Structure formats: structure tokens, C-alpha cells
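Weekly puzzle thread! Below is a chain. First person to post its structure in C-alpha cell form gets bragging rights.
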Amino acid sequence: MYLNIESKAGTVMAGQVREYRKSPGSLNLAASAAAHYAKNLKERVVLVEGNSYMSRVYHIARETDDLRKYAIMSNVTAKVLIVEPNGDCYYATAQ
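Winning reply:
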């Protein structure tokens, strides 16, 4: 996955993954869970928007994952949210 950082989105605190699993369509809960994973993995993670049964969900992916895993075509750029281990978030485009 090639990432092009566009702007800073803010800072998020690591939260409960259990809450994100109850409501995977909430960007706030997904960012909080992603911060938890990034802190534990000690690497940055990416939030990729997708759908599940026609509902919006956010997938938490590693930076090295392929976008096609999340049903995004290879020639399309997608807007993603990068979460650093320290909680900083950045908007980016992924290809």
C-alpha cells in the first residue's frame, strides 16, 4: 500500500477494542481501537473505509497490507486515516 499523507487530523487516545467491535461503522471508535493496536504493535496502522452488507465499516489494516484485501480496486485511490503509535492521526490517500 502506497500512502501519501495530506494533512494532520488530530490526536486520539487508545481505547477499548470491544466497543469498536460492537459498532464498526463509527470512525471515532475505529480510530480509538486503531490507536490501541498501533500502540501494541509499535507501528502505524491504517483505517480503510469499506462496507459490509451495505453498511459502512472501517477496517484496521497494517501499512504493509494490500488494498485489494479490502475490496478496493488496484487502480483506484482511497482516502484513509493513518494512526501513529503515539496517537497522532493523518488523512492520506492510498494506492
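Puzzle host: Confirmed. Bonus trivia for everyone else. The helical segments are 17-22, 27-41.
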